[in-house]
Known about the structure:
Radius of gyration: 18 Å
Strand order of the largest sheet: 5-10-9-6
CATH class of the largest domain: Alpha Beta
Shape: globular
Largest sheet: 4 strands, parallel
Number of helices: 9
Structural class: alpha/beta
Order of helices and strands: EEHHEEHEHHEHHEHEEHE
Amino acid sequence: MTVCLLCHQRYEPKLGWGDFLTVKQLDVLCEMCRRSFSLLDGERCHRCDRPFSQVAELYRHGELCADCLRWQQADEWRDVLTKNRSVYVYDEWMKDVVARWKFRGDYALVEAFRTDVCHEFFRHFSPDVVLVPIPLSKKRLYERGFNQAKSLAELLSLPIADVLERVDSEKQSKKTKIERLRTVQFRLCIDEWRCDQCVIIDDLYTTGSTVYHAARLLKQAGARDVFSFTLVRA
């Protein structure tokens, strides 16, 4: 018997003949909790992965959503970020799971995401990339005990470059969209950085402000192509 990481109920992992013939990691969640996760599906924005089912038709402009169209129309942000890809829908279930993971210090919950994160990442990106996790401020890192973006990056077993440092410590969720755009969020820890392709890793994509600010710095430092990959797309 195994204890589910989320509901803490005991369950019997289902095993097939293939599991006896190969080395396969058993699911850390019971079947009911696993079924509660909603993977992104259906038509989505070509650039940010936003499900078109969640927006009114007037906010869709061909393959792009209205937010991405605005990013592309602004000279300082155009083509800074090549694309974002995400794993889960940010529904009520996912909000609760993320809150437990980030704000209540339940670090072990990252293992609940491992299989889906790895599968979705390598569907969209090659292994020949460098991962850049979004950093936390020193205060926030002390409060949480871990950086959730870096814990996601570590699931992928690829090179990780901690080349960004957090400047603004106030939570982005407390700011308006205009305030997020005007806030200097990061600075580079290095003078220049030569990299063909890098992927910014974060837990949540909402307005895109965080990854766009990071992507612009990385491009200015010398990165050729910058992508982002997040656990959930709100």
